[in-house]
Amino acid sequence: MKKEIRASHILVNTEDEAKKLLDEIKEGKSFAEAAKEVSLCPSGHDGGDLGFFGRGMMVKPFEDAAFGLKEIGDLSEPVQTQFGWHLIQLTGFIDE
Questions:
Q1: What is the pLDDT of residues 4-33, one digit of tens each?
Q2: What residues make up the domain containing 77?
Q3: From the CB of residue 31, how many other CB atoms can be counted at a distance below 10 Å?
Q4: Is the pTM of this model over 0.85?
Q5: Which CATH number fits the domain that encloses residue 22?
Q6: Is 12 helix (H, G, I), strand (E, B) or coil?
Q7: What are the residues facing 79 on neighbouring strands?
């Protein structure tokens, strides 16, 4: 069980934007560069890095998707929250 995870994300307005970005990243585009180019979140300037966080620190749909990622480098499918659509990449974790 992961106690804390480190993740990066990209926030966009629509599911279609998120799906298109996901395809581009799967084809080799850098997640960090994509975040810098298009993310609506201020973390985009840092390649989408959110640092380490534990359960209860993010909105539920985001948290569920982020903690569901298994291996460093794994990408989520598009996740909708009240803020928009997210792509999440697992970049580290601390086990319990």
A1: 999 999 999 999 999 999 999 999 999 999
A2: 2-95
A3: 22
A4: yes
A5: 3.10.50.40
A6: strand
A7: 86
